[in-house]
Amino acid sequence: MSIASFSVSCKTYAHEKHHNTTLTGQSSSSLAHLASSRERFAASLNMSVEHVAEAIKARQVASTDLNEQLIAVEENNSEKLTAAEIGRMKHQMICQHRYQFFRNPFVCRKCWTFTPICVCHLLEERKRSQNNDAYKAQLPKGVEKLLIWTHHDEYGRTSNTGSLLPLALEQTDILMKGLPEHDKIMNEALHRKDVTPVVLWPDKKSKCESATITDLRRVIKQTTASPGQNHGHKNTDRIILIAIEGTWNTARKMVNKLPPNVIRLDLSEEIRRNFTTPSINEGIFIDTTIKSSTSLNAPSLLAPLRRQGQGAKQDTVSTLEAALVALVALGLTVDDALFILNCAREKVRRIQEYTGKTYPRD
Prior knowledge:
By secondary structure, the protein is α/β, with parallel strands linked by helices. Helix content is 43%, strand content 9%. It is built from 13 helices and eight strands.
């Protein structure tokens, strides 16, 4: 949504009809209702009308400046640098802009939900209920870190649930590909000698090594196996788990650029079992509010917010769900996984109500 036309867009957004969407009905907390009054919308943000206008203007100016800088980079370097080098410079500039200004000035920078319907307090309530500052769940033994490797176009998107993982799990970070400081962190993680990097990606055609959950458990348990026994894995009992955030096309490109030592983890069988069998992990991944909740036509909890393309696979689930399937299989408690899933479902529910739009799941 263009910031320049934000005041107009927010009034019409919830009223837009599309042949593949249905409207959930307007409520007093919907975007259309709030945006019909500048005062009401500002109050929902705990801001004055003047501060809202300033935020919109600042975002608009920043976007204009970025466009001018991108043009200048190409004009000033066309004879000195290759097209690939110029492309990398422009990509970094776009990433830095997205990281600093986000997609929308009125989105929470932590949970990536519209500010009036922020879900961060759900985590804070758990902290208070447990009366413990260490309210985040621990990663399973052997999983040293979880990295959410995010395409810049996905960063800050409200229909994203991977943003909730660092709020609920220890040793979990979101990194934007193309942001220099984040690229440095990722590169260091990928080339450590004392851990095995594993990416959640079912790429059977890749020449890189692939594995299943059973294989991964074996890697984690191994501490002193010889190369002949561990199929070439490092002598380590720890892994860094990498989840990719982006469309299938952008995610595939990101995975293809990972070094060959990164193991590809195929979760298709685990996903099928968890999303079709109520007895598996107490059925926490099955949304019982959906008529076809034990089918894989559109299992992802994000299906109401994102159009499922014609080529969508039956085991297509959100990054958050895929990460939790893997973590539960490796030892994360069902209670911790269910809490995170419920937070994500609540985020989706609030966004549906707020925007007034949903895509059919079947």
